Structures are given as structure tokens and as C-alpha cells.
């Protein structure tokens, strides 16, 4: 049950999944949120990503005259949660709890379906989240903003990369590809890592796969960090009654 001070923010008015290999979201009546992973059957379910679930606001559809699922969201709400700080917890239905990560950028896929959509949206595409506690989510479920919060993730991708690197245990390294995944950015951003890491004196904490392979052949591979302990990776989420 919701805590006495949890605030009702609205309700679920739309649900969808992106199955692996699907080019478009598939509408659903209910979905299952899996703690630490994402939505069951969705291609973005990933225990090491903060981009597990995309929430959008129904008002944006009305304002811009968008076709259903044009924003490719998983959960459509009749309220706008974009103004809530990162780390906020949303209880949806009886048990599921989502942890807000950061705003979702308008990608090229939106531009291809409607030129100019990215500019029209600005920062209103929606909010990305991870699943802190699992449970069934159904159309019409109430959405409560919980009083409890978890640590925030930076909106700027560079700051998020630095946040991840600060969590790398002393004496360990993280591979570029995993660093990008943990920070919630595309692998193409790895090209910018050398300059960013050098500027902050962190180049020794993250290395590309090729460098690590060469080090392994020379017998000098430092232990690799798998992300455990970062943003809930390898740890359970808050219990439904927390």
C-alpha cells in the first residue's frame, strides 16, 4: 500500500513493449516490471542500463497532434513527471516502483517519422527510468510519487560518465562499452572518452576492449569491474513497503 505521505500523481493511460527485433512498440494491457532489469519481454530490459523504461505524458500527444506511440514510450501517464528530480521513486499499481533516471533525448527515429518533431518536443519526449521493485503494471493503475528518493543521475552525459567512474573500485578498470552502457549513452560516445577521461585524470580507470585484450596477452590485465554497486546493479531495489 502507498505510504501515508506518498503523493498521487495520476494514472497509467497507455502501455507498450518493444520486443526484440520489433521496429515499433506493441500496445499492451498490462506489463510485468522486473526488479533491476526492466519490463519483461522488452528489448531495453538491461540490468546495467538506467534506460530500462520510458515514461511519457499524454498531454504532449494532444499538444502536438501525435499518432499513438509516436514517442515510442513504454508507459503513458496522464501526468507529467518530467519535472521530478532524478532519483525520485514512482510507485505504479500495488508493487512496481520505478526510479527516475534522466530525460530522454529526441532521437533520429522520431525525426524520420515526422520531420521537425525533435525540435517541437524540446525536452518533452519523456523520462527514462529503471525498475527498483518489480510487479504488474496495468492500464488505469494509480501512480504515486514516493517521499523516499535515491541518489540522482546527472542530466549531462559527461557528468554521468564521471559519476560511473567514481564508483569504479580502486585497482579495477571498466571497459569503454560497459562504461557507456552504465551511463545510459550509445556506444558511439566512446570516441569522446579519451579526451574526457584525460581532462579529469581518469584515463587509467577506463580502457577500450582492444587495449584490454593486448594487456591480457601480456599478462598484465587489471581486474575488470562489471558495474556491481552502481545505480543498483547487482543489488536489490527497495521493498514495496519502504
SS strand fraction: 25-35%
Name of the CATH superfamily of the largest domain:
PK beta-barrel domain-like
Look up the CATH topology of the largest domain: M1 Pyruvate Kinase, Domain 3
Q: List low-pLDDT spans.
A: 237-242
CATH structural class of the largest domain: Mainly Beta
- Widest β-sheet, arrangement of strands: 1-6-5-9-8-7-11
- Principal-axis shape equals globular
**Helix-strand topology string:** EEEEEHEEEHHEEEHEHHEH
Question: Structural class of the helix and strand makeup?
Answer: alpha+beta
Number of extended strands: 13
State mean pLDDT (0 to 100 scale): 89
Gap between N and C termini, in Å? 10 Å
Computed Rg: 19 Å
Fraction of residues in helix:
10-25%
Contiguous helical run count: 7
Number of domains: 2
- Major sheet details: 7 strands, mixed, barrel
CATH architecture of the largest domain: Beta Barrel
Biased composition (Gly residues): 229-242
InterPro entries: MoCF_Sase_C, MOSC_domain, Pyrv_Knase-like_insert_dom_sf
Pfam families: MOSC (PF03473)
Region (Disordered): 217-242
Q: What key attributes describe this structure?
A:
242 residues; alpha+beta; M1 Pyruvate Kinase, Domain 3; 2 domains; 7 helices; 13 strands; globular; disordered C terminus; MOSC domain-containing protein
Textual characterization of the structure:
This protein has 242 residues and is of the alpha+beta class. The protein has two domains: 7-149, PK beta-barrel domain-like (M1 Pyruvate Kinase, Domain 3), CATH 2.40.33; 157-217. The chain has seven helices and 13 strands. A seven-stranded mixed β-barrel has the order 1-6-5-9-8-7-11. The chain has a three-stranded antiparallel β-sheet with strand order 4-3-10, with no helix packed on it. Helix 4 packs across helix 5 (176-183). The radius of gyration is 19 Å and the shape is globular.
